Amino acid sequence: MNSRVSLLRIMKEKQEQIVMRISFWSGVAFALAELIMAIYSKSQSVLADTVYDSTELVVIGLTIYIIPLFYKPVTEKHPFGYAQLESIVILLKGFMFIAVMMVLIMNNIQIMLNGGNEIDHMQVSMFETILTCFSALILFILMQINKKVTSPTVDVEIYGWKIDVFSSVGVSLAFFLSSFLTHTPLAFISPYFDQIVAIVLALGMMKEPIQMIGDSFRSLMLLSPDEEEVTKIKHISSSILNNYPYDPVFYDITTTGRKMWISIYFTTRVDTMSFTELEVANRELKIALQKEYEDCFVELVPNVLANK
């Protein structure tokens, strides 16, 4: 049984490494293409994409290096393993994104105050359309691999590619429509359109890092998951424990990184308790909960004082 679990852990680690490496090298190619286009077209919107992707590459590179630590077993010295390290990396990623986006916003406001910047809108639209196609291809590949492996790091990475696809579609469409502004009463917007799109893009990108920071803080503080998840765990546990003479009185649920610890304190309806029955109940409960939460540890704890 232990050898099978170890084999599954090794396979999962390798698949996660594959996801991150595909994302990293794809990101390198995209960042180089965007940098060349940003220099050639002088587009602040393309530059915003370049800086965003380059910042992400730093974090992805660090994550690839430390992924093996996430799969190290729990020890007395590290009772939570290295799960919190993942939360720290995601927290760092969130703060880096916000800092970079704030600098880009301030830079674009400065350009607007100096009279804006005229660019070839149709050229940028075509470039973003090409990026959309390639981003969608990478996203599809990662989602196919993600069917076999799930983790907070991979989920965040796939979410990032989804943002890339939708933002590229939005920017491409915006610049395509703006190319027709020249001979309209709205022609005065043209010099500022690139900066406006860049600012909107930066503000839209901030939602993800803010959410990442909130989730990471909860994880580092060893807080329980949100109320919806707690209710779900209680429902699954109750459906199993109803078949045994155990009444749950307290749920101690801790989440850190990709791991979850669930301790269920219970009272008994009888004076004596079978340890064999307790072991069977614990195993059945663990199987049921791991269908929803793959990296979770489950234990049933008799609440002796509550029985008195």
Automatic annotation (TrEMBL):
Q: What is its main location?
A: membrane
Task: For this UniProt record, give its keywords in alphabetical order, as a comma-separated list.
Answer: Membrane, Transmembrane, Transmembrane helix, Transport
Q: Which domain of life does the UniProt lineage start with?
A: Bacteria
Instruction: Please list every transmembrane segment annotated in the UniProt record, as residue ranges.
Output: 21-40, 52-71, 83-105, 125-142, 163-181
Alphabetized InterPro entries for the sequence: Cation_efflux_TM (IPR058533), Cation_efflux_TMD_sf (IPR027469), CDF_Transporter (IPR050291)
Which topology term describes how it sits in the membrane? Multi-pass membrane protein
**Keyword Lipid metabolism found:** no
- Cation efflux protein transmembrane domain: which residues? 21-221
GO terms for biological process, alphabetical: intracellular zinc ion homeostasis
Q: Name one GO molecular function term.
A: cadmium ion transmembrane transporter activity
Q: Where is the signal peptide?
A: none
GO CC annotation, single: plasma membrane
Q: Report the subcellular localization.
A: Membrane
Q: Which PANTHER family match?
A: MITOCHONDRIAL METAL TRANSPORTER 1-RELATED
The name this protein carries in UniProt is Cation transporter
What is the originating organism of this protein?
A: Holdemanella biformis
